[in-house]
Task: structure prediction
Amino acid sequence: MTDHPPGPPRPLSRSRTDDSAGYIPWWVLLVLVALFGLIFVGAWGFVLATRAALGPRPSPTAVIVLVLPVAGTGLAPTLAPPATPQVTPTIPRGPVGIIQLGDYVKVVGTGGDGLRLRVGPGLQETPNYLALENEVLIVQSGPTIADGFTWWFLVDPADNTRNGWAAENYLEVVKNP
Result:
């Protein structure tokens, strides 16, 4: 047997580093990383959730409807209130001529598409008959102003079931039918 020198016994393992002042246990580092990760994810989620709410908002649009009197007819037009505000399409003005009750009128300016005669005056009314380009009809009632147009009630002289309201923009007075 060998004898050991007198003195303090030698340690059996390496010295522990957790006794030093700068040592941080691994589990503390893991908790700190997880905490910072949760804060980052929460902040990013808040930004994404509120970003859409901070964007620009559409502004309301005003619609102005101007109703002008019908010149030269001698009749006071009746006004039909529109169901909803709408933009009136640009439609070419028909040939100049004063339409009166009992006149014969010819369908013009449709480009061959014909003119829809409707059950009532207005663009929202149901079409009753499609009058062809150059077809001649008789004016039986009107004028009525609706949807920015002057409307006349027309009847086919050969068949009374072919009738309806038509916009004056596509009508031309015929002197001798």
Notes: The first strand starts at residue 78 and ends at 79. The mean pLDDT is 79. The chain has two domains: 23-54, 78-174.
